[in-house]
Amino acid sequence: xxxxxxxxxxxxxxxxxxxxxxxxxxxxxxxxxxxxxxxxxxxxxxxxxxxxxxxxxxxxxxxxxxxxxxxxxxxxxxxxxxxxxxxxxxxxxxxxxxxxxxxxxxxxxxxxxxxxxxxxxxxxxxxxxxxxxxxxxxxxxxxxxxxxxxxxxxxxxxxxxxxxxxxxxxxxxxxxxxxxxxxxxxxxxxxxxxxxxxxxxxxxxxxxxxxxxxxxxxxxxxxxxxxxxxxxxxxxxxxxxxxxxxxxxxxxxxxxxxxxxxxxxxxxxxxxxxxxxxxxxxxxxxxxxxxxxxxxxxxxxxxxxxxxxxxxxxxxxxxxxxxxxxxxxxx
Length: 331
Prior knowledge:
Layout: E1 2-6, H1 12-27, E2 31-34, E3 42-49, E4 52-59, E5 62-66, H2 68-74, E6 79-87, E7 89-94, E8 97-102, E9 106-109, E10 114-118, E11 121-129, H3 130-137, H4 153-168, H5 174-199, H6 202-219, H7 228-235, H8 239-248, H9 253-269, H10 279-285, H11 291-302, H12 306-324
Antiparallel strand pairs: 1-3, 2-5, 3-4, 4-11, 5-10, 6-9, 6-11, 7-8, 7-10
Helix pairs in contact: 3-6, 4-5, 6-7, 7-8
Protein backbone atom coordinates (compact mmCIF):
# COMPACT_ATOMS: atom_id res chain seq x y z
CA UNK A 1 0.00 0.00 0.00
CA UNK A 2 1.14 3.56 -0.67
CA UNK A 3 1.73 5.86 2.31
CA UNK A 4 -0.40 9.03 2.15
CA UNK A 5 0.40 10.60 5.49
CA UNK A 6 2.33 9.87 8.69
CA UNK A 7 2.89 11.75 11.94
CA UNK A 8 6.37 10.25 12.18
CA UNK A 9 8.87 13.08 12.47
CA UNK A 10 6.27 15.66 13.46
CA UNK A 11 6.50 17.48 16.78
CA UNK A 12 4.20 15.67 19.29
CA UNK A 13 2.40 18.94 20.00
CA UNK A 14 1.42 19.31 16.32
CA UNK A 15 0.92 15.66 15.33
CA UNK A 16 -2.82 15.31 16.03
CA UNK A 17 -3.70 18.73 14.62
CA UNK A 18 -1.98 17.96 11.33
CA UNK A 19 -3.56 14.50 11.26
CA UNK A 20 -7.02 15.98 11.77
CA UNK A 21 -6.45 18.70 9.17
CA UNK A 22 -5.24 16.15 6.62
CA UNK A 23 -8.32 13.93 7.09
CA UNK A 24 -10.72 16.85 6.88
CA UNK A 25 -9.17 18.45 3.81
CA UNK A 26 -8.02 15.41 1.82
CA UNK A 27 -10.64 12.82 2.76
CA UNK A 28 -13.90 13.44 4.66
CA UNK A 29 -14.59 16.65 6.65
CA UNK A 30 -15.56 15.35 10.11
CA UNK A 31 -15.26 16.45 13.72
CA UNK A 32 -12.33 14.47 15.17
CA UNK A 33 -11.19 14.44 18.80
CA UNK A 34 -7.98 12.95 20.22
CA UNK A 35 -8.66 10.38 22.99
CA UNK A 36 -5.05 9.25 23.42
CA UNK A 37 -3.32 9.99 26.71
CA UNK A 38 0.13 9.51 25.16
CA UNK A 39 1.43 11.55 22.19
CA UNK A 40 -0.68 10.92 19.09
CA UNK A 41 0.64 8.69 16.30
CA UNK A 42 -1.03 7.99 12.97
CA UNK A 43 -0.39 6.68 9.47
CA UNK A 44 -2.65 6.51 6.40
CA UNK A 45 -1.99 4.09 3.53
CA UNK A 46 -3.94 3.60 0.31
CA UNK A 47 -4.28 1.22 -2.61
CA UNK A 48 -6.85 0.43 -5.28
CA UNK A 49 -7.40 -3.12 -6.49
CA UNK A 50 -9.33 -2.84 -9.73
CA UNK A 51 -12.19 -0.47 -8.90
CA UNK A 52 -11.99 -1.21 -5.15
CA UNK A 53 -10.34 1.62 -3.15
CA UNK A 54 -8.84 0.43 0.17
CA UNK A 55 -7.50 2.69 2.93
CA UNK A 56 -5.60 1.56 6.02
CA UNK A 57 -5.55 3.77 9.11
CA UNK A 58 -3.05 2.95 11.87
CA UNK A 59 -3.59 5.38 14.72
CA UNK A 60 -3.94 6.31 18.36
CA UNK A 61 -7.42 6.50 19.90
CA UNK A 62 -9.85 9.03 18.39
CA UNK A 63 -13.53 9.92 18.40
CA UNK A 64 -15.01 10.97 15.05
CA UNK A 65 -18.44 12.51 14.57
CA UNK A 66 -19.95 12.68 11.10
CA UNK A 67 -22.37 15.60 11.23
CA UNK A 68 -25.39 16.17 8.94
CA UNK A 69 -23.56 19.16 7.47
CA UNK A 70 -20.53 16.98 6.65
CA UNK A 71 -22.79 14.47 4.92
CA UNK A 72 -24.40 17.21 2.81
CA UNK A 73 -21.05 18.68 1.80
CA UNK A 74 -19.40 15.37 0.97
CA UNK A 75 -22.18 14.07 -1.30
CA UNK A 76 -21.20 10.39 -1.28
CA UNK A 77 -24.64 8.89 -0.94
CA UNK A 78 -23.91 6.26 -3.58
CA UNK A 79 -21.19 4.63 -1.45
CA UNK A 80 -20.98 2.30 1.54
CA UNK A 81 -17.90 1.58 3.64
CA UNK A 82 -16.81 -1.79 5.02
CA UNK A 83 -14.50 -1.24 8.01
CA UNK A 84 -12.35 -4.25 8.98
CA UNK A 85 -10.73 -4.07 12.42
CA UNK A 86 -7.17 -5.38 12.07
CA UNK A 87 -6.24 -4.62 15.67
CA UNK A 88 -7.71 -2.71 18.59
CA UNK A 89 -11.36 -1.90 19.17
CA UNK A 90 -13.87 -0.01 17.02
CA UNK A 91 -17.25 1.20 18.29
CA UNK A 92 -19.78 2.99 16.09
CA UNK A 93 -23.26 4.51 16.38
CA UNK A 94 -25.30 5.04 13.22
CA UNK A 95 -28.84 4.46 11.95
CA UNK A 96 -30.08 4.15 15.56
CA UNK A 97 -27.80 1.16 16.06
CA UNK A 98 -24.59 0.55 17.98
CA UNK A 99 -21.90 -1.88 16.89
CA UNK A 100 -18.61 -2.95 18.44
CA UNK A 101 -15.95 -4.58 16.26
CA UNK A 102 -12.82 -6.29 17.54
CA UNK A 103 -9.88 -7.83 15.74
CA UNK A 104 -11.12 -9.74 12.70
CA UNK A 105 -14.66 -8.30 12.75
CA UNK A 106 -16.06 -5.87 10.22
CA UNK A 107 -18.98 -3.47 10.02
CA UNK A 108 -20.56 -1.70 7.03
CA UNK A 109 -21.31 2.00 7.44
CA UNK A 110 -23.58 4.23 5.43
CA UNK A 111 -22.84 7.81 4.43
CA UNK A 112 -25.00 9.16 7.23
CA UNK A 113 -24.45 11.06 10.49
CA UNK A 114 -22.90 8.95 13.22
CA UNK A 115 -20.18 8.61 15.83
CA UNK A 116 -17.14 6.33 15.65
CA UNK A 117 -14.51 5.62 18.32
CA UNK A 118 -11.31 3.79 17.41
CA UNK A 119 -9.10 2.47 20.18
CA UNK A 120 -5.39 2.48 19.35
CA UNK A 121 -5.01 0.03 16.49
CA UNK A 122 -5.50 -0.47 12.76
CA UNK A 123 -8.56 -0.56 10.46
CA UNK A 124 -9.06 -1.22 6.76
CA UNK A 125 -11.76 0.84 5.01
CA UNK A 126 -13.16 -0.49 1.73
CA UNK A 127 -15.11 1.94 -0.44
CA UNK A 128 -18.04 0.04 -1.98
CA UNK A 129 -20.81 0.90 -4.46
CA UNK A 130 -24.12 0.96 -2.60
CA UNK A 131 -25.98 -0.56 -5.55
CA UNK A 132 -23.78 -3.69 -5.53
CA UNK A 133 -24.70 -4.56 -1.94
CA UNK A 134 -28.32 -3.42 -2.02
CA UNK A 135 -29.07 -5.40 -5.19
CA UNK A 136 -28.37 -8.57 -3.19
CA UNK A 137 -29.16 -7.70 0.43
CA UNK A 138 -31.92 -5.11 0.13
CA UNK A 139 -31.94 -1.57 1.59
CA UNK A 140 -28.75 -0.63 3.44
CA UNK A 141 -30.68 0.01 6.69
CA UNK A 142 -31.00 -3.78 6.99
CA UNK A 143 -27.28 -4.50 7.22
CA UNK A 144 -25.38 -1.34 8.14
CA UNK A 145 -23.99 -0.95 11.67
CA UNK A 146 -24.13 -4.68 12.36
CA UNK A 147 -21.01 -6.32 13.77
CA UNK A 148 -20.06 -9.11 11.36
CA UNK A 149 -17.91 -11.20 13.66
CA UNK A 150 -15.22 -13.84 13.27
CA UNK A 151 -17.58 -16.40 14.78
CA UNK A 152 -18.80 -16.70 11.19
CA UNK A 153 -16.50 -18.74 8.97
CA UNK A 154 -17.43 -16.51 6.01
CA UNK A 155 -16.08 -13.47 7.89
CA UNK A 156 -12.74 -15.15 8.52
CA UNK A 157 -12.58 -16.11 4.85
CA UNK A 158 -13.40 -12.55 3.71
CA UNK A 159 -10.85 -11.08 6.12
CA UNK A 160 -8.07 -13.40 4.96
CA UNK A 161 -8.91 -12.87 1.30
CA UNK A 162 -8.83 -9.05 1.56
CA UNK A 163 -5.47 -9.07 3.35
CA UNK A 164 -3.97 -11.42 0.75
CA UNK A 165 -5.47 -9.34 -2.06
CA UNK A 166 -3.72 -6.24 -0.73
CA UNK A 167 -0.45 -8.15 -0.47
CA UNK A 168 -0.44 -9.33 -4.11
CA UNK A 169 -2.45 -6.49 -5.67
CA UNK A 170 0.50 -4.83 -7.39
CA UNK A 171 1.27 -8.12 -9.21
CA UNK A 172 -2.17 -8.45 -10.81
CA UNK A 173 -3.04 -7.37 -14.33
CA UNK A 174 -5.85 -4.79 -14.52
CA UNK A 175 -8.39 -7.43 -15.63
CA UNK A 176 -7.31 -9.86 -12.92
CA UNK A 177 -7.44 -7.10 -10.29
CA UNK A 178 -11.02 -6.27 -11.27
CA UNK A 179 -12.08 -9.92 -11.06
CA UNK A 180 -10.30 -10.55 -7.76
CA UNK A 181 -11.75 -7.39 -6.19
CA UNK A 182 -15.23 -8.50 -7.27
CA UNK A 183 -14.70 -11.83 -5.51
CA UNK A 184 -13.70 -9.96 -2.35
CA UNK A 185 -16.93 -7.96 -2.43
CA UNK A 186 -18.92 -11.16 -2.99
CA UNK A 187 -17.31 -12.69 0.11
CA UNK A 188 -18.33 -9.66 2.17
CA UNK A 189 -21.87 -9.89 0.82
CA UNK A 190 -21.97 -13.58 1.80
CA UNK A 191 -20.82 -12.71 5.33
CA UNK A 192 -23.44 -9.98 5.62
CA UNK A 193 -26.16 -12.33 4.38
CA UNK A 194 -25.18 -14.91 6.98
CA UNK A 195 -25.16 -12.24 9.67
CA UNK A 196 -28.59 -10.98 8.62
CA UNK A 197 -30.07 -14.39 9.23
CA UNK A 198 -29.15 -13.98 12.90
CA UNK A 199 -30.51 -10.45 13.14
CA UNK A 200 -33.68 -9.73 11.23
CA UNK A 201 -37.26 -11.01 11.45
CA UNK A 202 -38.34 -13.81 9.15
CA UNK A 203 -40.24 -11.46 6.81
CA UNK A 204 -37.16 -9.29 6.29
CA UNK A 205 -35.01 -12.39 5.90
CA UNK A 206 -37.40 -13.38 3.12
CA UNK A 207 -36.95 -10.01 1.40
CA UNK A 208 -33.18 -10.40 1.52
CA UNK A 209 -33.39 -13.94 0.15
CA UNK A 210 -35.62 -12.89 -2.75
CA UNK A 211 -33.29 -9.97 -3.52
CA UNK A 212 -30.32 -12.37 -3.63
CA UNK A 213 -32.28 -14.77 -5.83
CA UNK A 214 -33.23 -12.02 -8.29
CA UNK A 215 -29.63 -10.80 -8.47
CA UNK A 216 -28.45 -14.36 -9.15
CA UNK A 217 -31.04 -14.75 -11.91
CA UNK A 218 -29.92 -11.52 -13.60
CA UNK A 219 -26.27 -12.66 -13.45
CA UNK A 220 -27.09 -16.08 -14.98
CA UNK A 221 -29.82 -15.38 -17.57
CA UNK A 222 -27.64 -16.83 -20.31
CA UNK A 223 -27.31 -20.16 -18.49
CA UNK A 224 -29.78 -22.51 -20.17
CA UNK A 225 -29.62 -24.86 -17.14
CA UNK A 226 -30.81 -22.22 -14.67
CA UNK A 227 -33.94 -23.52 -12.95
CA UNK A 228 -35.63 -23.21 -9.53
CA UNK A 229 -33.64 -26.05 -7.85
CA UNK A 230 -30.32 -24.55 -8.99
CA UNK A 231 -31.43 -21.10 -7.84
CA UNK A 232 -32.48 -22.37 -4.40
CA UNK A 233 -29.11 -24.07 -3.94
CA UNK A 234 -27.28 -20.90 -5.02
CA UNK A 235 -29.00 -18.71 -2.38
CA UNK A 236 -28.82 -21.36 0.34
CA UNK A 237 -32.48 -22.18 1.00
CA UNK A 238 -34.73 -25.13 0.23
CA UNK A 239 -36.67 -25.13 -3.02
CA UNK A 240 -39.93 -25.25 -1.09
CA UNK A 241 -38.97 -22.17 0.97
CA UNK A 242 -37.90 -20.21 -2.11
CA UNK A 243 -41.17 -21.10 -3.86
CA UNK A 244 -43.09 -19.85 -0.81
CA UNK A 245 -41.19 -16.55 -0.80
CA UNK A 246 -41.88 -15.88 -4.49
CA UNK A 247 -45.54 -16.89 -4.15
CA UNK A 248 -45.94 -14.54 -1.17
CA UNK A 249 -44.95 -11.78 -3.60
CA UNK A 250 -47.39 -12.94 -6.28
CA UNK A 251 -44.85 -14.64 -8.57
CA UNK A 252 -43.70 -18.13 -9.52
CA UNK A 253 -39.96 -18.67 -9.78
CA UNK A 254 -40.08 -20.10 -13.30
CA UNK A 255 -42.35 -17.31 -14.53
CA UNK A 256 -39.95 -14.72 -13.12
CA UNK A 257 -36.92 -16.35 -14.79
CA UNK A 258 -38.63 -16.58 -18.20
CA UNK A 259 -39.94 -13.04 -17.81
CA UNK A 260 -36.45 -11.67 -17.21
CA UNK A 261 -35.09 -13.65 -20.17
CA UNK A 262 -37.80 -12.22 -22.44
CA UNK A 263 -37.07 -8.69 -21.20
CA UNK A 264 -33.37 -9.16 -22.00
CA UNK A 265 -34.20 -10.60 -25.42
CA UNK A 266 -36.51 -7.69 -26.28
CA UNK A 267 -33.81 -5.24 -25.23
CA UNK A 268 -31.24 -6.93 -27.48
CA UNK A 269 -33.62 -7.20 -30.42
CA UNK A 270 -34.10 -3.42 -30.32
CA UNK A 271 -30.40 -2.69 -29.78
CA UNK A 272 -28.52 -1.76 -33.01
CA UNK A 273 -25.33 -3.12 -31.43
CA UNK A 274 -26.92 -6.60 -31.48
CA UNK A 275 -28.20 -6.38 -35.07
CA UNK A 276 -25.48 -8.76 -36.29
CA UNK A 277 -26.75 -11.57 -34.05
CA UNK A 278 -29.08 -14.13 -35.62
CA UNK A 279 -32.37 -14.75 -33.81
CA UNK A 280 -31.09 -18.18 -32.80
CA UNK A 281 -27.81 -16.85 -31.34
CA UNK A 282 -29.65 -14.09 -29.51
CA UNK A 283 -32.13 -16.60 -28.08
CA UNK A 284 -29.36 -18.87 -26.85
CA UNK A 285 -27.53 -15.93 -25.26
CA UNK A 286 -30.67 -15.13 -23.27
CA UNK A 287 -30.98 -18.66 -21.89
CA UNK A 288 -33.38 -20.29 -24.36
CA UNK A 289 -32.41 -23.81 -25.43
CA UNK A 290 -34.06 -23.56 -28.85
CA UNK A 291 -35.15 -20.87 -31.29
CA UNK A 292 -38.63 -22.41 -31.57
CA UNK A 293 -39.16 -22.25 -27.80
CA UNK A 294 -37.97 -18.66 -27.76
CA UNK A 295 -40.22 -17.64 -30.69
CA UNK A 296 -43.28 -19.21 -29.05
CA UNK A 297 -42.74 -17.54 -25.67
CA UNK A 298 -41.84 -14.20 -27.25
CA UNK A 299 -44.99 -14.13 -29.39
CA UNK A 300 -47.12 -15.04 -26.37
CA UNK A 301 -45.65 -12.02 -24.53
CA UNK A 302 -45.47 -9.41 -27.32
CA UNK A 303 -48.02 -10.60 -29.87
CA UNK A 304 -45.48 -10.62 -32.72
CA UNK A 305 -42.50 -12.78 -33.64
CA UNK A 306 -38.92 -11.84 -32.63
CA UNK A 307 -38.01 -10.99 -36.23
CA UNK A 308 -41.10 -8.76 -36.57
CA UNK A 309 -40.24 -7.06 -33.29
CA UNK A 310 -36.68 -6.41 -34.47
CA UNK A 311 -37.89 -5.09 -37.84
CA UNK A 312 -40.43 -2.78 -36.20
CA UNK A 313 -37.76 -1.22 -33.99
CA UNK A 314 -35.35 -0.93 -36.92
CA UNK A 315 -38.04 0.89 -38.89
CA UNK A 316 -38.71 3.25 -35.94
CA UNK A 317 -35.02 4.09 -35.68
CA UNK A 318 -34.85 4.82 -39.43
CA UNK A 319 -37.92 7.04 -39.26
CA UNK A 320 -36.50 9.03 -36.35
CA UNK A 321 -33.21 9.45 -38.21
CA UNK A 322 -34.98 10.57 -41.38
CA UNK A 323 -37.20 13.01 -39.50
CA UNK A 324 -34.21 14.57 -37.80
CA UNK A 325 -32.77 15.45 -41.23
CA UNK A 326 -35.88 17.34 -42.45
CA UNK A 327 -35.30 21.09 -42.91
CA UNK A 328 -36.81 23.27 -40.26
CA UNK A 329 -39.73 25.30 -41.54
CA UNK A 330 -40.77 28.39 -39.67
CA UNK A 331 -44.44 29.34 -39.52
